[in-house]
Amino acid sequence: MKIKEGNAGLIINFELLHLLNSRGAAKDTTRVMASVGRSEYKVYDYLVGTVACNQTKEHINEFLEKSQKFKLTKAEILSIINTRPSQLVELDPIMCRQIVEQQEQRPELDMEELLELILQVLPPPPSETEPEPEPEPVDEDNNKTADAEKNVPDE
Amino acid sequence: MFFLSLIEHKLRLPPEDLSLPLPKGIKKVLDGIFLDKVIANLGLCVSIYDIRNISGGFIQAGEGAPTYTVEFRMVVFRPFTGEIIVAKIIESDNDGLRLSLGFFDDIYVPAHQLPQPCHQIPDPDRRYKVRWIWEYDIEDTGNPEQYNIDGLDEVKLQVLNVSFPPLPIEQQEKPFAPMLVTVSQPSTDQYLNVVWGQFHGGD
Questions:
Q1: pLDDT value at position B6?
Q2: Rounded to an integer, what distance in angstroms lies between the CA atom of residue A107 and that of residue B61?
Q3: In this structure, is the dihedral angle defined by the CA atoms of residues B78, B47, B3 and A87, taken in order, positive or negative?
Q4: What angle do helix axes A57-66 and A74-83 make, rounded to 10 degrees?
Q5: Name one GO cellular component term (chain B) (predicted).
Q6: SS3 assignment, position A5
Q7: For residue B80, what pLDDT is reported?
Q8: How far is CA B86 from the centre of its chain?
Q9: Mutation target among B47, B55, B90 for the A interface, most CBs of A within 10 A
Q10: What 3-state class would DSSP assign to B82?
Q11: Within chain B, what is the greatest distance between any pair of CA atoms?
């Protein structure tokens, strides 16, 4: 086995969830027929409990576009999309890894504005939007469109 | 948390899989070899992303199955230092906490990284485990509130270090963990208060 490229690109949780869904992880309730292994199902179960399950490509693209003016690093964008901080105090650890450097380079970085952009563009986690658990997806429709319809931009 | 890795591997395709279309057969063998295994200094292999190139297919002398050289991309789990991850507590003892992501169980918070000030009390339910209690004084009244760090909450953590201990030669008591992620609570005081408030049953 040869590792040709140790790092061929970062993946956000949403992309991995999308990959597993495209293989049929969501539709197959018996978990036997889809070409998804048992360990992959464990990852799927984890991802479905995070904010990634409500996100769509449009959300991600919109966020990437609108956050360009903040000049965020890749790692920060990744962390923000994966965890969707909903308060200033949650945004702090993501942004302040090397405080001194940041203050010199980007003194005009407005955390509140960034937070508002996040709250506006990225959908909230499932525990905030729906009080009761989602029904089992047994229908033939594409799960993603169903989720996109249920999405309500919050606050 | 996840990244792609380009890997080249030589594998043998067993005869019973020869009736499948080639990419499917190859993927089946790759799944069996790599899924849910840790590659040293790379990470935990989660899933095959795509297959870039298949070559070979020759049967070598003395063997009963064709050998293929496959180049493919794989999704690997390895959080980078400073990343924020969300996990659940599964164990708590003298040295600190152990957390789980469902597919990965070896995330440790060493005791000194727990939010200070905190102390431990022996857990009434389980013999060798302890329960950590975090005292946080929100309004500086000198009367701190006590938050139980127990298994009900989800915790947001910042990754300090990912290590790959080498295979042990002798048998150890604990099952061997090929990949260890050490985390800490992010350093801002305010942050801790909000996070605990949010996840601790809505209090």
A1: 94
A2: 68
A3: negative
A4: 140
A5: RNA polymerase III complex
A6: strand
A7: 82
A8: 11
A9: B47
A10: coil
A11: 81
Q: How far apart are CA B128 and CA B143, in angstroms?
A: 30
Which of A5, A39, A93 is the closest to B188 by Cβ? Answer: A93
H or E segment at B195? helix B189-199
Q: Could you give phi then psi for residue B146, rounded to 5 degrees?
A: -105, 120
Q: Are B103 and A48 in contact (CB under 8 A)?
A: no
Chain A and chain B share a number of CB contacts under 8 A equal to: 108
pLDDT value of position A106: 57
List the structure tokens of B66: 């064709």
Query: Which residues from chain B sit within 8 angstroms of residue A43, using beta carbons?
Result: 46-47, 77, 102-103
Supply the pLDDT for residue A142: 43
Local mean pLDDT, 10-residue blocks, chain B (203 residues): 92 90 92 88 89 90 91 90 81 79 84 70 65 63 62 72 71 61 56 39 30
Q: What is the pLDDT of residue B202?
A: 30
Which residues of chain A have a pLDDT value below 50? Answer: 97-100, 104, 129-155
Please tell me the total number of residues recorded for chain A in this structure: 155
pTM metric for this prediction: 0.76
Alpha helices in A23-110 (DSSP H): 38-48, 57-66, 74-83, 88-95, 99-105
Tokens, residue A74:
């890749």
Report strand pairing: B180-184 vs B107-110.
Answer: parallel
